[in-house]
Amino acid sequence: MLIYDKIYGEFDITGVVEELILSEPVQRLKEIHQGGASYLINKEVIDFFMNPLGIYGGDRLAKVLKQALNKKIITKDDFLTTDDQLLHKIKASNDQEVVSLLGQIHPDAEVEVNEQEYDIHQKNKIRLINPSIWINNKFVSASDLSNYVKEMNEVALFKAEIGMYVKLVKS
Questions:
Q1: Angle at 32 (CA atoms; ends 26, 34), nearest 5 degrees
Q2: CA dist., res. 31 & res. 35, Å (int)
């Protein structure tokens, strides 16, 4: 199955994700071996959460929403509406500062990772992917079965601890 995202592009979601099921008391992968768990933890998954353009967009959106709340353009209840309704309300306010900041969020923005000169430093929530695998009638952590899963989690932990340094090149 192919999915498409405006910012991150097209991704192929294979049967591994399609077979993800809910099993009491934890989520597990149905009828696949540890190779399936290895599929879920890879450089693309780790980089997804540390994507510089995503960090930039999230930073700008947070600033837009905070300013809109502070200026009483939106209320907390507006977060219960759809994204389109919320954005429409912000744009309709004609508040030049907030609308201008919102305009900085677009797919043509260019950013780079730069630890010396940066506009944004963000440390993300640590996201380790270590699913339980059902083997011989018991759950076993994928990292106990696969050195690859263990190593990729170590990479993810390292990246999360130092964070991402993002410089805006072109808005």
A1: 85
A2: 11
What residue has token string 């079965």? 145
Residue 127's CB is within 10 A of a number of other CB atoms, namely 16
pLDDT digits (tens, 9 = 90+) for 99-155: 999 999 988 899 999 999 999 999 877 777 787 777 777 888 888 888 888 888 888
pLDDT in tens, 47-101: 777 788 989 999 999 999 999 999 999 999 999 999 999 999 999 999 999 999 9
Contact 101/67 with Cβ under 8 angstroms? yes
How does 147-167 read in b/e, with b if 16+ C-beta sit within 10 Å?
Answer: ebbeebbeebeebbeebbbbb
Pure H helices in the chain: 15-18, 34-40, 43-49, 52-70, 83-92, 96-103, 142-145, 147-162
